[in-house]
Fold Glucose-1-phosphate adenylyltransferase.
Amino acid sequence: MPERRPFAPISRDTMAYVLAGGRGSRLMELTDFRAKPAVYFGGKTRIIDFALSNAINSGIRRIGVATQYKAHSLIRHLQNGWNFLRPGRNESFDILPASQRVSEDQWYAGTADAVYQNIEIIEGYAPRYMVILAGDHIYKMDYEMMLQQHVDTGADVTVGCLDVSKEEATAFGVMHVDENFRITDFVEKPKDPPTIPGRPDTCLASMGIYVFETNFLMDQLRRDAADPNSARDFGKDIIPHIVRHGSAYAHRFNRSVVRSAAEPDSEAYWRDVGTVDAYWQANIDLTDVVPPLDIYDRDWPIWTYAETTPPAKFVHDVEGRRGYAVSSLVSGDCIISGGSLKRSLLFTGVRVRSYSQLDHAVVLPHCTIGRGARLSKVIIDRAVNIPDGLVIGEDPELDAQRFRRTASGICLVTKPMIDRLNYR
């Protein structure tokens, strides 16, 4: 492998490998027909666009995406929105479905296996470093800073970590570190999690982001593949083995988080939008006057497939039939025709008919909201037609009978649920 050029960004010698094969079953019916990384987010993007945009904005120009569960929607999005990397510029973008490269009857058995089965493709590009990424989280991060720490410490693996409270840490894989942030133990969802030295109330939780030198990673994957007792998983097998037998360091997210220039003291924003409640909340957060995640930042844009659409349109201006939106995000090709929106987020191509009211609603693309409908604290799946006069969010018992209602009162509404109403 050639020596890295002096003063060149480490990201130029790096491949980002995004693990995007999971369903995300806690999102319930939202992932019936698409993988979690393909779920819509924020009005225009998909969840996976955040990890991919972080890679591009960090200077990484070789990217692989491993797909598996119901991948058509995800693959189509990647082909439409991420086909701008060019081999002639030493760039590459590979979509890597489980394709029986190792065995004719074997899908990806775990996160580590999803990389192992594509070793030949990775080695063909000969990147010096690998950044392994989860494709299902919402955050903005400069991976170059994590790569620099990896090189400076001489670590075998560097693990991206969040600062979380001791109470929150019980839901994560937690790093036990010494005063230099070398990882001395890795504990999965502990009842009594280890804390950061000198900070007895704060723990380091794994973000599912790992940096390796490529040759070392390939050796570890081959060793793990030969172990019949392995689960073929980074968090369960690869990382604990390196902690015990090698050199593992924690990289704290607050060192490389990308904040808005207008809000340099804002929180280090990272969200696992893996539940219906968390997904709804993260979308509604964007309607804040100053949202914790800045999607308007031109210095660190979130790239995606940009559809060509007409502008949003608001029509009618008579009492009781006025098209308007307050503290809301409305995407292109939406028409608000005599309806009202408050603290809501509409994706592309939504139609809101007269006399309807939406309050804290997340409406996915190409839905129609019927006349006189009243919707509160809802997620409406793609291409759902809400019948005229339907009310959701005012009668908890009735909502729970007809839709997916969470304990906190968020209702997820899908096309089959609406179809069942029409047959009653």
